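Think of the structure tokens as a kind of shorthand, similar to the way a musician reads notation: each symbol stands for something richer, in this case the local conformation of the backbone. In the example below we present two proteins back to back. Begin with the first one, reading the sequence and then the tokens, and try to describe in your own words what changes along the chain.
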Amino acid sequence: MEERYSKAETLALRRKHIGPSCKVFFAKDPLKIVRAQGQYMFDEKGEKYLDCINNVAHVGHSHPYVIKAATKQMELLNTNSRFLHDNLVQYAQRLTATLPEKLSVCYFVNSGSEANDLALRLARQYHGHQDVITLENAYHGHVTSLIDISPYKFNQLGKDSKKEFVHVAPSPDIYRGKYREDHSDPASAYAEEVKKIIEETQKNGRKIAAFIAESMQSCGGQVIPPVGYFQKVAEYVRAVGGVFIADEVQVGFGRVGKHFWAFQLQGEDFVPDIVTMGKPIGNGHPMSCVVTTREIAESFGASGLEYFNTFGGNPVSCAIGLAVLDVIENEDLQGNATRVGNYLLELLAEQKEKHPLVGDIRGVGLFIGVDLVKDQQKRTPATAEALHLIYKLKEHQILLSADGPHRNILKFKPPMCFTMEDAKHVVEIIDALLTEMEEATGMKTENNTSTNAQCKRKTTDGSSQPEGANDSIGHMNGAACRQENGLYSNKRSVPSKRIRT
């Protein structure tokens, strides 16, 4: 494919015409991507990169079935939802069929940010309350209303940036958080923190409209809440007239494998009041959705304000959404997420046994985090090392990113067509690079197989997969899993700005 501009010209024009706060991956040597297929992306030279981070191209880049559905509908009609069209109602019917019965009313919008902004409006209209409880390190979108409830963003603005109506609860992180894996009941302990916030706000005459959380935190560091946490939080929040918003923008549509939605990892007895979705919903096409109960929807309508979204729910978007659901089902991508995700977790767990730089492996399906540390006992974040590893992987034509509050968590969230061969290739390269890094700095690399074997917990079926809600939810950590190691001293500076992926 002949390019209009050279890479240098493209970069120069971007610097001239695109806002400086719009960052690129690999700023020292950004990639110019000209096409993509499946789990691969190609640069202007035809070099192929394995994409381990693109949860937007959910069923694979440039999927022919999705493209055909979009093209066919574009040739016929694209208009707004004020006209009747079968695509809209068919898609709403198909989408709600994947959810618990009471979540039956859809509002179609165009991005995850729009979806979460609308969810806040629904919550605040429901009982007229205004305050919102969010989690440490949370990110819910780029519009003003969501920056206000996203500590991942507003903490960068200074100590006085948190608004009075926003309350921040501890992230339910059992590796780095307040209550860890050695706590007898971390779910209840973290939920009690939310209860304390509610009690304090009531003393101050304030009223909670909503608790919002990603079903699994992504930017917050690939955090998987302990089972039972959401149920208890929902109980406390609903008791004071608030609602529970489950943000599935990053992790929905079968990414966790056995379940279609990540909130279902908490168990069948948990149902949120509002669910937001985006990113994977259109496989790269800009669309998103808010699904809620009939009661909340009717309350929103009672305000007297019509809700209209010019592009939300248009026939083309709905055709694409239907096609994505078809591919997930027809190609058994949920099953693939379970099989490949389990295999990837196993391979990464072996790396934890080999490498002192690896502190924790956690994940479910094709949503996995690798927590890099300088010291396994102290769990000191290895921020510079993670950045170095990301750039070295790029040299091997593997695209991975690092995030979390310390930017030391390697994030795996690839297209759902990711294969076992892909997983094996990536981990082999990571293994070689970690070995190289540890040898260069004198870190010890003794295996500690006997203690790490104790980290695997039994599931209900008696297998040696990590503990979870009948899924393979890996969390390879714990006091028994720690080993002594040398310190990795690296004086390199790390950029202070984050790029959300």
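Once you have a description of the first chain, move to the second and do the same.
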Amino acid sequence: MAYDERLARFRQAHLNPFNKAPEQQQEHPDGETPTPARRPDPSPGDPEGTLDLGLAEDHFRPVGLILASDVQQLRQAIEECKRAILALPEHSERQKDAVVRLIHLRLKLQELKDPDEDEPNIRVVLEHRFYKEKSKSVKQTCDKCSTIIWGLIQTWYTCTGCYYRCHSKCLPLVSKACVRAKVSHQAEYQLSICPESGLDSQDYRCAECRAPVSLRGVPSEARQCDYTGLYYCSSCHWNDLAVVPARAIHNWDFEPRKVSRCSMRYLALMVSRPVLKLREINPLLFNYVEELVEIRKLRQDILLMKPYFITCKEAMEARLLLQLQDRQHFVENDEMYSLQDLIDIEAGRLSCSLTEIHTLFAKHIKLDCERCQAKGFVCELCKEGDVLFPFDSHTSVCTDCSAVFHRDCYYDNSTTCPKCARLSLRKQSLFQDSSTEAEP
């Protein structure tokens, strides 16, 4: 009977709150109704001591609901939770639960510090054009304070020019102007390989935020940018990797190097801009990189094909020149290159894609379009063979009149160009006719 009495008392003390059947209380043998066992009050050092703040498991409260709404209460709960985590056995389930509660408390505190108020959608700071982001699931890092942006509870902005990201509370602290403005006003690269001048020239301070730095890491680690050669703190230099233009042009070296955040954004904006004139910067590069010679010949041929497309109705309707819309400078000149062009040449991608476009253009002119075929040339030196075009590999073009000949005929013939001679005679005859008409 002792076991049955203990079982009855246990069931009475732990009634199921979801059992809607009428409760039938069992009477005590002495005629007294047993009272439910009262749970002792938690001690301050117990991890369950934060129950009054809504952190304990409660089946009658929605999951994640935190009753503490005052900043002071949340800070007090955080401190108690920290002490509880240290007091609990390591790697235990209770310690893990306490860590989860601590995370929720900190998020709630951050939410109170940075409420999701009605922020303006556009903010302009130091030529940055910041737009309010609406994405809540993407995890980003603030470029100003180097902490995580919690999109669910924090308001954050992105610059549409240089893609600078920061919290709304960090906007007033932004001290670096938008890199897009520098690209628009002065689009050029630093072409010296890592021009280091030493920490003493920077007064042992970060080149961007002027925070104290040292090579020993006290008070902050000095990190060198391989593009500018300057030293930055860990908040301004995240060890991002990028191809350095000076190393690519002078050494044909495309290994990514560590650069600062500011240099990373600048190089990302400049990578597709055709600002590199290789013939002037490093003309010997064409002697050592065969792919550059091949690309230059293809670009020269495309420039010779361009007049055919401009005067061809079918080509304009088919918009053949839009095949090079990502590299518009290829249909303007054959001298300027972008850093992305050099990267693609080294990887072998540009040669393949440009060869396919060259073949498509040549097919339209020589086979598909009768108008373009009618603009071909016949070699006036041998007067034999097929119709010639200036972009054919076995032809030569007169630099004065743009007439096209077989290469062998042009160099074997020591006389002047027949078309140039004919034009010269025509000019002389016109001059003589005009002079005779002028005589009385």
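Compare your description with these statements about the second chain. The longest helix spans residues 93-113.
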